[in-house]
Amino acid sequence: MRVVKQIELDQPEPFKRQLLHWAQQFEEVLWLDSNAKSNGDSQTYSSYDVMLAIDAFTSIKTDWHNAFKKLEEYQKKSNDWLFGYLTYDLKNDVENLTSNNHDQLHFADLCFFQPKKIFLIQGNRLEVQYLNFVSDEIEADIQAIKNSSFQILKENSTSKIVIKARTSEAAYLEKVDTMLKHIHKGDVYEANFCQEFYAENARINPLDVFEKLNSLSKAPFTTFLRLENQFLLSASPERYIKKEGTKVISQPIKGTMRRSKEALEDKKLAVALCKDIKERSENIMITDLVRNDLSRTAAKGSVAVEELCGLYSFLQVHQLISTITSEVSKEMEPVEILRTTFPMGSMTGAPKVSAMHIIETLEDAKRGLYSGTVGYFTPEGDFDFNVVIRSILYNAANRYISFSVGSAITAQSIPEKEFEECLLKAKAMREVLS
Q1: Distance set, CA 410 to CA 1, 189, 194, 414 (Å)
Q2: In angstroms, rounded to a whole number, what is the distance separating the alpha carbons of residues 150 and 35?
Q3: Residue 332 to residue 134: CA distance in whole angstroms
Q4: Residues 274, 308: Cα–Cα separation, whole Å
Q5: H or E element at residue 224
Q6: End-to-end CA gap in the chain
Q7: What is the distance, to the nearest Å, from the Cα of residue 240 to the centroid of all Cα atoms in its chain?
Q8: Which of 138, 154, 208, 425 is the most exposed place for a label (fewest CB within 10 A)?
Q9: CA 384 – CA 28 distance, rounded (Å)
Q10: What is the DSSP code string of 258-314?
């Protein structure tokens, strides 16, 4: 059971930053920020401006073997708020697949925790939910948060961060050519192909890097995750899937165009994206895949496309986003909805299983948490999960930094342009690390 308290905030923006800095004392931290002021037009299904979960009371950490079954058991037993992640490699639990590529991050395949303390901010209202046995700490914590400063102790790097590409440009172009051969043979008609950039023997201050990344992107599914020595610093613009009562919402992104600082050119770029046949076809193919995925748990005839190829503009890029919804029965297990739609279509391709097989043979790095998902379950069995893209992953114990980017390969793809799209998506991560 939890003690719930409502508090009115005079200045929510400074308080949010104080809250995040105060949370750094804990070993389990999950911060979810919708950047509501910057993303008003993409917040139709947003529940909170900010969510913070800290300090695990119970937790589950496992590899991919029977991972969804274990998560369902944990979710039912806890009957409480749960926060955590699913890595891309849980594909091996839902299909006959493997993950044998290079991995220096060593994140568990699945990890969720039941936090002792939760903070929920919507507008000027703060709601705190503390487990009963720590509820006597609410007042002292609120005062400590208001008194916390923004000072960060900078860690000295042993050397300048040197970012390397796991896949050379020449190798990338060759691999995209191979993917195109699969497409022309009919093995697959779209596949998301990714590459890793990394730095070894590197040390960063995760919160400092996260705040810089967020200031550049102001994305609607921004995430700061700390689990002991492992960190995710994410500026994700994409929702994977949400359940709200009996309604399920998925919002895949496919279609990317750079922004311009010059207003007229920026508008022309946005119009060009909306009219681009290749970019629209990418989105429509994945929308169809998501419709099929949702139909596996949906009430008959309830799957609908609420918006197709909607234009959304973020600080770094313009994007095309579609919104697909369905209705499920009250008896439908929340984890089953995740299992039957995982991994998300925007990060795999179509047909999904064939795309994942080909991706595994061509990519040089294990995806792990990249192109997986971070989010939460409510005590009522609702949930909301993002897509882990535009993200920096950091293993502090190994001093290893990684960020990956990808693009959708279709029959119309030009390898050189796909490489340029990857560099565009990597721009913000590279900038905050350089």
Answers
A1: 50, 6, 14, 9
A2: 19
A3: 33
A4: 11
A5: strand 221-227
A6: 46
A7: 8
A8: 154
A9: 19
A10: E--SSHHHHHHHHHHHHH-HHHHHHHHHHHHHHHHHHHTTSPTT--EEEEEEEEEE-
Token duo for residue 192: 């998301």
Query: How far is it, in rounded angstroms, from Cα 122 to Cα 63?
Result: 35
| DSSP 3-state of 206 | helix
Q: Percent of the chain scored above 70 by pLDDT? A: 97
Quick one: which H or E segment has residue 230?
strand 230-236
Distance CA 429, CA 434 (A): 9
Beta-bridge mates of residue 319: 256, 312
Is the pTM value of this prediction over 0.85? yes
pLDDT digits (tens, 9 = 90+) for 208-228: 999 999 999 999 999 999 999
Q: Buried b vs exposed e over 334-367: b needs ≥16 C-beta within 10 Å?
A: bbebbbbbbbbbbbbbbbbbbbbbbbbebbbbbb
Residues identified as active-site:
238, 254
**Tokens found for residue 147:** 């008194």
d(CA 238, CA 430): 20
Residue type, 4: V
User: 344: which DSSP letter?
Assistant: P
SS3 label, residue 409: strand
Q: Are the C-beta atoms of 92 and 353 separated by less than 8 Å?
A: no
Which residue is associated with the tokens 């102790």? 153
- The upper half-sphere exposure of residue 152, i.e. CA atoms within 13 Å in the direction of its Cβ, equals 18
Across the chain, which distance is largest between two alpha carbons, in Å? 65
Residue 157: the pLDDT is 44
Please give the single-letter amino acid code of residue 358.
I
For 279-301, write each residue's pLDDT tens digit.
Answer: 999 999 999 999 999 999 999 99
Distance CA 235, CA 262 (A): 24
The candidate with the shortest Cα–Cα distance to 80, out of 112, 33, 103, 37, is: 112
| Whole-angstrom distance, CA of residue 257 vs CA of residue 221 | 19
Going by pLDDT thresholds of 50, 70 and 90, the confidence category of residue 42 is: low
H or E, element range at 56: strand 50-62
Nearest by Cα to 333 from 115, 30, 71? 71
For residue 265, CA distances in Å to 73, 262, 341 come to 53, 6, 38
Domain 2-150+162-433 has CATH 3.40.1000.10: no
- How many beta carbons lie within 10 A of that of residue 229, not counting itself? 12
Residues 6 or more apart whose CB falls under 8 angstroms from that of 112 comprise: 59, 60, 71, 74, 75, 82, 83, 84, 85, 377
